[in-house]
Amino acid sequence: MTGTLTTAAITADDLEALARGAAVLGTGGGGDPYIGRLLAAQALREHGPVALVAPSDLPDDAQVFPVAMMGAPTVMVEKTPSVERIGDTVAALARHIGVTPTHIACIEAGGVNSTFPLVAAAQLGLPVVDGDGMGRAFPELQMVLQTLSGIGCTPMSIADEKGNVGVLQSVDNRSAEALARSLTITMGCAAIISNYAMTGAQARASLVAGTLSLCTRIGRRVAEVRAEHGDAVGAVAAELGGRVLHSGKVTDVARRTTTGFARGTAVVSGAGELVLEFQNEHLVARRDGVVEVTTPDLIIVLDTDSGEPVTTEALRFGHRVSVLAAPADERWHSPGGIELVGPRYFGYDTDPVRFDAREDR
Amino acid sequence: MTGTLTTAAITADDLEALARGAAVLGTGGGGDPYIGRLLAAQALREHGPVALVAPSDLPDDAQVFPVAMMGAPTVMVEKTPSVERIGDTVAALARHIGVTPTHIACIEAGGVNSTFPLVAAAQLGLPVVDGDGMGRAFPELQMVLQTLSGIGCTPMSIADEKGNVGVLQSVDNRSAEALARSLTITMGCAAIISNYAMTGAQARASLVAGTLSLCTRIGRRVAEVRAEHGDAVGAVAAELGGRVLHSGKVTDVARRTTTGFARGTAVVSGAGELVLEFQNEHLVARRDGVVEVTTPDLIIVLDTDSGEPVTTEALRFGHRVSVLAAPADERWHSPGGIELVGPRYFGYDTDPVRFDAREDR
């Protein structure tokens, strides 16, 4: 209104849409974004809106600090960290490295980790980058495009809600995952982490651009289309450049939790049967024994009527759902990307199968 | 020889005696000091003798850095850390705190951790303090007299042989144990740690003085007395102000390793039966159902013929052993000390029973 450039911003009013879209990109995992949304709402009310900066607008020498929640989001509800602790975790890493953060970023687009960084951004008075390190959700720290670009996960900071803090330096990003995972478990299965600190140049080159805006757009579309009694599921597919693979009723859900992840299988019956294999996220979709889509592409389950995303924990017998597939960031399909997040890494005996936009059935 | 004061020093020739004495103070735990002795021998050959400084000679503003091995010493044999990694772990903590170490110290007198600090001292060219934080061996990080003095275990550094390094800051010393233990397990069950960094004034007030000299003296006496076909067991008891509780043959050893510690029970038959309860260290000695001595006092098992210390892992059916008891540092008998290392902490349903020098049986 004063003639200066209007900077995009995220306000408390955006959080409902952002959280819904984040649960869509979470592809069944990433946790219910409810707690992240609550914390962000509190921080935005207290500190005002957070400026949103496109990766392409980052100066080369920007100091970009991602922040995230590691562990089980369900546990975080029980022992919610204070807003200050989240900012302190970023500050602990910044102090260790000896630089001053200029921007906050999301390392994951999906679930709680799309809203969690807004808390740090609001508290520290910093803008947040409109992008993330995956373009979706994945369960382990090394599973980010930064790893493919040779950017270190460490030094990283890790903290709990009581005030215990660690700074880790690892020989590679997978070791960082192992070390941080063990601390997270000791910290009660939920920790705050800040890792993959990057320059602006590194962030521009390695982040998936636009994912916070995309989440908000998806979340808004679902609400709008639903208000018009339209096809919310189709609207989500359109926003993601994906398509509906299958619609039907959940007729079987089998879960095992032996390895600390929510592993399992869900059967969606309808015109034929689609079997979903999940480990936090939906990773493989099979129709009649034939693999139709696998990680790294996105497999998304929505409530057929409302278009609301359904997490793997919330899948229930009798639930009427639609299964969407959508393309992942192209870099995930490189040999290094497939090694990091392809189906074989997760223990599925199949080559990766890419999302195909043609409806051949 | 130049008329200046002769400083005491530890040379490679002292290591055999020092390691033997350390295994005695290890009271069955602390690990076989063999690997620590090998590493120390290599470091002392390369860098020369290490000066030994009495706690009482420490200036107030000395910066004393303990260094130790955490985890299973048996594992360390498989993946021996380089001499440099040990020094680097001290350096990582010093850098984090922002001070320059002036002295190295032992946090534990017993097993590998009496010789391990000599490696860092030799490599960094620093003197080692003639003392330690326990006056014996105990299995957990918070079990040091420093905790009773309000000295923090953290900031602490922790590193593995590959180059992974963490710096931890905890809300209390028991939380430091939990966090560092989980990292140690992920690091392959053996890690190098530097913790309880102290000023000279704090070290003077909180260390048990003279334990490295005591270990060396005990180790020498065993060799001398054995050479004279004398009573090596009696000589050890005399050095420690203790007495022989029992001599006989090991007639039963039961072990369980469910909680990550080598828990178990050993029966020594002879004139009556003495039952030893151990968890890494020997913690309770019972005769005919009556508790005779408990932690924090020292319960030591020696080979009856040779006077060589026997670790709890080495206890075998048919082994002819002598069981000694000796008094712990008086501070361990305070209410705070008993809370930290008394028999109930270890899960034994008995009040602490102090060593009694009178032979009433």
State the CATH topology of the largest domain in chain A.
CV3147-like fold
Low-confidence stretches of chain A: 1-6
Largest interface: A-B, 20 and 20 residues
Q: Taking strands numbered 1, 2, ... along the chain, how are they ordered across the largest sheet of chain A?
A: 17-16-15-14-13-19-18
The structural domain count of chain A equals 2
> Largest beta sheet of chain A, briefly?
7 strands, antiparallel
The chain-level structural class of chain A is alpha+beta
Protein architecture, described:
The structure is a homodimer of 361-residue chains. By secondary structure, chain A is of the alpha+beta class. Chain A starts with 8 loop residues before the first strand and ends in a 20-residue tail after the last helix. Chain A contains eleven helices and 19 strands. Chain A folds into two domains: 9-209, 3-Layer(aba) Sandwich (CV3147-like fold), CATH 3.40.1610.10; 231-341, CV3147-like (Beta Barrel), CATH 2.40.390.10. In chain A, the strands form five sheets. The first copy, chain A, has a seven-stranded antiparallel beta sheet. The first copy, chain A, has a four-stranded antiparallel beta sheet with strand order 4-10-8-9, with helices on both faces. Chain A is globular, with a radius of gyration of 19 Å. Chain A binds chain B through residues 96, 162-171, 175, 178-179, 181-183, 185-187, and chain B through 96, 162-171, 175, 178-179, 181-183, 185-187.
